[in-house]
Automatic annotation (TrEMBL):
One BP term from GO: methylation
Keywords: Methyltransferase, Transferase
Ranges where the Methyltransferase domain occurs: 48-136
Classification via Gene3D superfamilies: Vaccinia Virus protein VP39 (3.40.50.150)
A matching Pfam family: Methyltransf_25
Any one GO molecular function term: methyltransferase activity
Protein name from the UniProt record: Class I SAM-dependent methyltransferase
Length: 204
């Protein structure tokens, strides 16, 4: 039975196969472009915090190729080893995103297909982590389920846990932690059915 606590061990175990077989068609491109277009530049360069960065391919590589400096965070050591090999000029940390404190802010914070592996309680706590790494106008983008629920998925033949809050709960958390919702598209047909949130940190 997969649980939130077994997810990192699963991804560590399958890291090589995940990197080898991960779909490289980049159906996420339009959303990544939206995030970059909205994100402010810091001294001429966008900085992106990629939470649950995996091996860095294809998403972090795409962002880096467009001039962003990437800081990857993943709790699976074999994934961060691959990330370091695939993006040698980027920064990477082997760490659990829960309770993360890097002591700096970023132009954009991305949690694509990663945040939703956390339990509902941990997802709620993550909004304080997002805010801690955000400056005025920082863009936050994450994927969730289309509505509240828990289900099991599969990655390279391994069971993995997924959970989602309701859209109303995410909206409340965004507002309470100083984020303004820019877009929410549930089950986007142009992005492989991903449910995607885009928000801006106002600090208000």
């Amino acid at each position: 039975m997969s649980t939130p606590e077994t997810t990192l061990a699963v991804y560590d175990r399958i890291a090589g196969d995940w990197d080898r077989y991960r779909d490289r068609r980049l159906t996420e491109r339009a959303w990544l472009d939206r995030m970059l277009a909205a994100a402010p530049r810091n001294k001429g360069k966008r900085t992106v915090l990629d939470l649950g960065c995996g091996s860095g391919r294809p998403i972090a590589t795409y962002l880096a190729d467009r001039g962003a400096h990437i800081t990857g965070v993943d709790g699976a050591p074999r994934m961060t080893d691959l990330f370091a090999q695939n993006l040698p000029t980027a920064t990477v940390h082997t760490a659990d995103m829960r309770g993360l404190d890097l002591g700096r802010t970023f132009s954009a914070i991305l949690a694509w297909d990663s945040f939703f592996h956390l339990s509902p309680a941990d997802q709620r706590q993550m909004f304080a982590v997002f805010a801690q790494h955000a400056a005025p106008d920082t863009i936050l983008m994450f994927t969730s389920g289309p509505d509240e629920g828990v289900e099991m998925g599969e990655v390279v033949g391994e069971a993995v846990y997924h959970a989602s809050l309701s859209p109303e709960a995410y909206r409340d958390l965004l507002t309470r932690h100083g984020f303004e919702e820019l877009m929410f598209v549930p089950e986007d047909p142009d992005c492989g059915g991903h449910s995607v949130w885009l928000a801006k940190f106002t600090g208000a």
